[in-house]
Design a protein that fits this description.
It is a single chain. The chain is 45% helix and 21% strand. With 180 residues, it is an alpha+beta fold. The strands form 2 sheets. A 4-stranded antiparallel sheet has the order 1-2-3-4, with helices on both faces. Strands 5-6-7 form a 3-stranded antiparallel sheet. The longest helix has 26 residues, at 154-179.
Length: 180
């Protein structure tokens, strides 16, 4: 247990001890006393449990080749070419699967519900000529962002971001229609 948890545990133990003493003095019925103690103990137990993130519930695989992605999921419902020079590599295409509602970008499968934001980033500095990147912000603890290079053309990179955004929006609309 680290210091913050041990301090928190000590504070909670002092509060529970004080509560028990007050309730013992006020109440003579043991069952009522146990009933009053059950509620804070349950609250403390739930608070001390580690929070589970959405990305930890379902493990999604990563792929080294385009053929591995297609062999695992089948033919994609949509394919977005991100980098024409790497079209036959996982880092050059973004596959969209509407059935399972996931996106495979840079060989990493991301569930639609774990995608928070899709943006464009310019990696150039005043001293280097960098590429544009599609940045997918996720809820995954082990992979908060997935970046896919799109070359040096800003309008092409913006088109890639737009296509991916529309594909994810289409997945969410299909989900909403199936729920209603």
């Amino acid at each position: 247990m680290d210091k913050t948890n041990s301090h928190r545990f000590r504070d909670v133990a002092v509060v529970i001890t004080a509560l028990v003493l007050v309730l013992l003095i006020m109440l003579s019925d043991l069952t009522v006393l146990l009933g009053f103690l059950l509620i804070p103990c349950a609250y403390i137990y739930l608070k001390m449990q580690p929070e589970q993130k959405s990305g930890k519930a379902i493990a999604v695989p990563s792929f080294g080749t385009v053929e591995a992605m297609v062999a695992f999921y089948g033919q994609p419902d949509g394919a977005i070419l991100a980098d024409a020079t790497r079209a036959n590599e996982p880092c050059g295409v973004i596959f969209c699967y509407f059935g399972p509602r996931l996106v495979v970008a840079d060989g990493i499968a991301i569930l639609e519900r774990d995608i928070e934001e899709i943006t464009l980033e310019n990696t150039a500095t005043p001293y280097t000529n960098g590429q544009f990147q599609v940045v997918i912000a996720t809820r995954l603890a082990d992979r908060p962002t997935v970046k896919v290079n799109c070359g040096r053309d800003a309008s092409f990179a913006a088109d890639v971001v737009g296509e991916l955004y529309m594909a994810v929006r289409h997945m969410r609309q299909r989900k909403d229609k199936s729920n209603s």
